[in-house]
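User: Before I run my own analysis I want an independent prediction to cross-check against. Here's the chain; please return only the structure tokens and, at the end, one sentence I can use as a sanity check.
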Amino acid sequence: MVNALCPRCGTPKKRPWKQCSSCGLDPAHDEDALVKSVYLSVERFEDGDDRRRYSKELDDLAVRIRAGESPAFDPAVLNRLRKQKQLVESVPASAVWGAVFRLFLPAIVVVVVLVIIIVMRRL
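Assistant: Structure tokens:
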């Protein structure tokens, strides 16, 4: 089962944002290549059934791309993926770390309280 394809040469990849081992295309440094790589991956679907169905389609697309055929990209989907990328990039790192801290704060408090109790019992 294919997870992602290189949009340039059709080589299967594990993740759409990884560099192609065959032609060297690196989506991390090319926004258009990244958006097209995500388009040609199961990562753009949330539902497991959609992912399995599209993985089978990717097998066929890989053959056609390797034969020199250019894949037909739906402009609306490409636009949605670009907007999602911009949205993700607009989130400041401090907001991410704040969310992680709030998520783990209860566990941190429990550990600190347990350590205090253990220390107090030894005194």
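Sanity check: Residues 92-123 form one domain.
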